[in-house]
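Duplicate of #3305? Posting structure anyway:
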């Protein structure tokens, strides 16, 4: 499966962005999906994940209550809605897919990655 995240940009603190991740090659309904981010000089960190059926979602503590992950299997797209953005949310955001059933917040547990999209939050 090929993934492409887009929708990044420059936003002021307190603002919102919605990042779509479009898939091609295989149907996304066969994959659990995750969003990760990487700030300059930092390791890649988990942001959010969603099960194949979208019944279960998981969030990093740093984004809980502000970010929402969702998926539209018919459209083969996963979304990350980001509200109340903070300067510390500035990073390149990546979507990832894996056929495993079990949840994971470890980026090593995801086999497929899209090219990231840069989100910059100004103070």
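Output from current build:
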């Amino acid at each position: 499966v090929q993934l492409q995240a887009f929708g990044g940009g420059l936003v002021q603190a307190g603002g919102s962005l919605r990042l779509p991740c479009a898939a091609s090659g295989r149907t996304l309904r066969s994959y659990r999906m995750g969003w990760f981010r990487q700030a300059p000089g930092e390791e890649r960190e988990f942001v959010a994940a969603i099960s194949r059926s979208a019944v279960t979602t998981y969030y990093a503590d740093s984004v809980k209550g502000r970010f929402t992950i969702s998926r539209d299997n018919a459209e083969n797209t996963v979304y990350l809605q980001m509200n109340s953005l903070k300067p510390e949310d500035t990073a390149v955001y990546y979507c990832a897919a894996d056929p495993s059933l079990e949840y994971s917040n470890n980026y090593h547990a995801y086999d497929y990655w899209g090219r990231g999209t840069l989100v910059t939050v100004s103070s």
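Confirmed duplicate; merging threads. The mean pLDDT is 95. The radius of gyration is 13 Å.
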